[in-house]
Amino acid sequence: MQPKVSAKGHKRLAELRAAGKDPSHGGEAAKRRGEKIALSNRINPRRKPTRKSEESRAGNPATNGDETLPLFPYPQEGVELWSESIERWSKRTAGVRFPETLVLAGHGAQIKVEDSALVIRFGVTRPETERKTLKLYPGMHRIKKIIGIDITGMLTFDGLRRCMEQGVSIILLDRWGSLQSVLTREDFRDVALRRAQYTLGYDERVEISRKLLQKKIAGQLTALLELLPGTKDAQTYLQDSLYLLDGAATLEEMWVIEARAAKTYFDALRGFPIRWRGREAKKVPEHWRAVRERVSPITGRNKGAVDPANALLNYGYGILAADCRINLLLAGFDPACGVLHADKAGRDSLIYDLMEIFRAEVDRRVFGKLLRESSFKRGDFLMTRGGFCQLSPEFARYVAKTLSINNDGIKEAARWLKEEILLESSM
Q: What residues does each domain of the chain span?
């Protein structure tokens, strides 16, 4: 009986191989197995970095050490915890109403055109899950931007062209929340506005910068009143800073006032509790249990966060930078020519000018919405061997939606800045 069964099995296997359906090298089971292995290798890579790759990462804050290999949770446990986090946050992400924004993460994401529709295929963030696919027909959707977080996959020329035709911007962030690229329409350039930008005098820059910083510090004051009403000393200092701005005569004076106000503001937020579920707080690193200073001890800058709070802030500021760039281009600005921030090669200084108005709003969402109203589990964040803090993919999708600011406010602020520059340049 056994030889007969074996002969039938061999015959059937030969038929499948002849038809290109070899079960040992393909099929859905093999595909799921490959995706599971890819996710495991992403969290716990077995290949040791080469000497050349180590040298290429030296001095790069975003890739200091092997950024994909966690110190904690332990490798196998990390795979399980990360998978659990992805499943939990994918459900919460679906409940966030932000109809103008799609957020993609994971492997194999696609943006293409099929049957006259813009097709968006979500990436794989955990194995053994069906990938969601959306078909967007012209005039039948409200999508204005697609945010891709550390994604791999495919963007076709037809897909890019269709996005531009329908006014859909594509924003790419790395795994740390830093802005990598913005693909958006740039077909409107206001020559009169750009000429005004280039010829704006020093005194005019001072007046516009004063208004920008007043809006920023007033927002920080409002945030402290809402989040930490007991921080009276810090609130008084911020109020005094607004008075000092009124009397400042140079940009240099304003930079000093703003820097001291920002330090006072973030010092007041230090110690803000980060809530963990059950006994998780005892298992996470000590510096993950409360908000710490804004500057990373590894990079000496704001980038390269080593704790959850600053990692969340970096995501919020990265998305805000993209939104500001999009609206400045739509208004006809040259984003490289700043007012408050000095011109610097390779930097779009005007984006940082406009961001100042909305930074406190991002802070309020991070501290008020995420840290105060949520409790976390270890799999929501990973510590890399370089010491950096990384978000799980689906949690990052939830964060991107939660921290996105209504575009109407940014659009109005860009219009206000345009009027100010044209007015000051005409005087």
A: 101-173, 191-426
**Average pLDDT, integer, range 51-80:** 46
Half-sphere exposure in the Cβ direction for 372 (13 Å, CA): 12
Alpha carbon 15 to chain centroid distance? 50
Among residues 178, 129, 220, 197, the alpha carbon closest in space to that of 317 is found at: 178
> How many CB atoms are closer than 10 A to CB 101?
19
Q: Which helix (H) or strand (E) holds 29?
A: helix 27-43
Task: Give the span between the Cα atoms of 115 and 135, in whole angstroms.
Answer: 9
Q: Is residue 291 a contact partner of residue 308, using CB atoms and an 8 Å limit?
A: no
Q: Between the CA of residue 334 and those of 122, 200, 325, 348, what are the distances in Å? A: 33, 13, 10, 8
Residue 153, classed as helix, strand or coil, is strand
Q: How far apart are the C-alpha atoms of 201 and 212, rounded to whole Å?
A: 17
**From its phi and psi, is residue 72 left (phi > 0), alpha (psi between -120 and 50) or beta?**
beta
Distance, CA of 187 to CA of 167 (rounded, Å) = 11
Q: How many CB atoms lie within 10 A of CB 30?
A: 13
- Report helix, strand or coil for 417: helix
Mean pLDDT for 42-71 is: 45
Q: In angstroms, rounded to a whole number, what is the distance separating the alpha carbons of residues 300 and 305?
A: 10
What is the CB neighbour count within 10 angstroms for residue 125?
29
Vertex 368, ends 85 and 176: CA angle to 5°?
Answer: 50
Please, what is the angle between helix 232-247 and helix 202-227, to 10°?
Answer: 170
Q: What is the signed CA dihedral for 328, 349, 416, 261, rounded to 10 degrees? A: 140
- Does the domain made of 101-173 have the CATH classification 3.100.10.20? yes
Q: Do residues 177 and 318 touch, judged by C-beta distance below 8 A?
A: yes
Please give the residue that has the higher pLDDT: either 191 or 63: 191
CATH superfamily of 191-426: CRISPR-associated endonuclease Cas1, C-terminal domain (1.20.120.920)
Mean pLDDT (whole number) for 311-324 = 95
Mean pLDDT of 292-309: 92
Letter string b/e over residues 318-356, b meaning 16 or more CB atoms within 10 A of that residue's CB: bbbbbbbbbbbbbbbbbbebbbbbeeeeeebbbbbbbbb
pLDDT of residue 318: 95
For the stretch 138-193, pLDDT in tens is 989 889 999 999 999 999 999 999 999 999 999 999 988 999 999 998 878 889 99
Provide the CB-side half-sphere exposure for 177 (13 A, CA): 32
